[in-house]
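Hi L., both proteins are below.
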Amino acid sequence: MPDILETLLPVFGSAVSAGFPSPADDYIESRIDMNEYLIQHKEATFFLRVQGDSMNQLGILDGDLLVVDRSIPVEVGNIVIAAIDGEFTVKQFALSEGNPILKAANPAYKDISIDPDGDLEIWGVVRWAIHKLWP
């Protein structure tokens, strides 16, 4: 898989305040490689674009770019890419009485209960959702 960015980007030495403004330090502390920051398992990572708003209350928005890792074991609460009868969706993984449930994060959408004989395949765990803040 080709590198996302082959350039090391600057990381400033101070954090930005999300509350009251604070004086900023004017120096670069280090440089960051976005490949190392976003991708833990290079061979098992892929990207998908989101279409729809079923996960918006968990910060996953229409048009977002998802970074998905296939090597991470799925746990309850993970956001996953799942194939149900061959159709892909992004949902939060849960269990009810031992059966998988794919939970939406928007009350306009119903959760998806998976029949024990159903065709469910988890393709990976979503590690990052990248979206623009301004058009």
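That was the first. Here is the second:
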Amino acid sequence: MTEKRFPLSKARLEAICAEHPTPFHLYDEAAIRENARGLKKAFAVLGDGFKEFFAVKALPNPFILKILAAEGFGADASSLPEIALALKAGIGGEDIMFSSNDTPQAEFAAALRAGAIVNLDDISHIESLAAAGGIPELVCCRYNPGALKQGNAIIGKPEEAKYGFTRGQLLEGYRGLEAGGAKRFGLHTMVASNELDPEYFIETGRLLFELVAELSEKIGIRFEFVNLGGGIGIPYRPEQTAVPLARVAAGLKSAYDEIIVPAGLSPLKTYIECGRVVTGPYGYLVSRVIHMKDTYRKYVGLDASMANLMRPALYGAYHHITVLGKEEAEPMETYDVTGSLCENNDKFAIGRRLPAVEVGDLVAIHDSGAHGHAMGFNYNGKLRSAEFLLREDGSVVEIRRAETMDDYFSTLDFARLDSFEAGERHGR
């Protein structure tokens, strides 16, 4: 079981909302730091070669990245803006892992300028990378194991996924990279998302270790690291339990000692690129009830929508909901908890048992610290919300302001619209 508790009292949250209107995302710095240190401690058994590259896509805010950089984390970036965010947070060089797919050449060039580790997604990208600035000394390739490895509902079956090299392509690809001047090599895979079975990650590590041994023998190159990807899930539901990271680390160490050491391939660094398990449980979407509706079902209407948190609509995902001030009250009613988009799947919960809810109640939607604000959008002209950080000293600071209508219209040229209308009137 996982306890779902919001870190502030209703009175404290109401005081914050008096200055900052809902909806907004709130992140708990102390909890994020404690969790980051716990992750490093769990994987310390893998030695000094272990490193976590935080998946910027999960929570692309430089304040959060700076906190994690201070805890010794790197950054896993997938685009030019994500590289820029990492650099703004003081993360650079080989502390950035650039893992992208269908990559524009300009983004390869930016990654090379930043000194990032480039993780290639396809054999055809070798030529594109060379044209973007040359083959760097250190390069990595992403492996897609196909039917050898089972995926999950979020990322799909590996053999149907768009990501990665086949086994045969890796042999050809690494030979080509070495011929192009690469001297240091990494191997990466990522085949599941939000997975809670610890054995899954141990099996992934074993698969990569065995592949490193095979490729090293067949090609004659030395691998510097393996990157096991991310995908470690979190217990969104109270009845679920967190992945035992120490168990994962111990299993990886055992596989390493069994495969890598006897093959004479040690030391081999072990990297991961988790996002969700680092910040996910320590973010909350705070919203206020603005309507109650009773038709064929009972509805709780919030001032937030799936533009603020789209996981429930996109995946049918569960996010726990706390009604502030009613944490100890018995669930008395069954509601659909909705937003105001013109889409019927704009629902944070369907048939959810909650305490009796009233207009004006504040609710906290849990586990929005990864893939929450990051997946926001502007459909229906909805504006992205602010982000706040609950500091270790108890203060609350704004780390991203809410969008305004001026922001929304900033890419439109209304002056040209006026001249366009004039031209239409004159038959131009």
